[in-house]
Design a protein that fits this description.
single chain; Arc Repressor Mutant, subunit A; 4 helices
């Protein structure tokens, strides 16, 4: 894919792509958190490849040690939250 074939998403499209609330990207930018973005005047754009790379960097894999520790305490596996939703 050439540079001219890049897919850019606006903030609301990015939220839909990541399945998060529409206001969360604004909050993330204010907190200086989240995937990289581009400012073009007043428009905020996200490259789809940057979103995919950011998601990959957020991947968590539970270890058997984590499961054994929580099971010993009478709890199941821990639940992480991304974008306010349990995963």
């Amino acid at each position: 894919m050439s540079e001219h074939d890049e897919v850019y998403l606006r903030s609301h499209e990015m939220a839909s792509y990541l399945r998060i609330g529409r206001k969360l990207p604004v909050k993330w930018r204010w907190l200086r958190y989240g995937p990289p973005y581009i400012k073009a005047g007043r428009a905020v754009l996200y490259r789809r490849r940057d979103l995919d790379a950011w998601l990959e960097s957020r991947e968590c894999r539970p270890t058997s040690e984590d499961f054994e520790t929580n099971s010993a305490k009478g709890r199941g596996p821990t639940v992480s939250k991304i974008g306010g939703r349990a995963t």
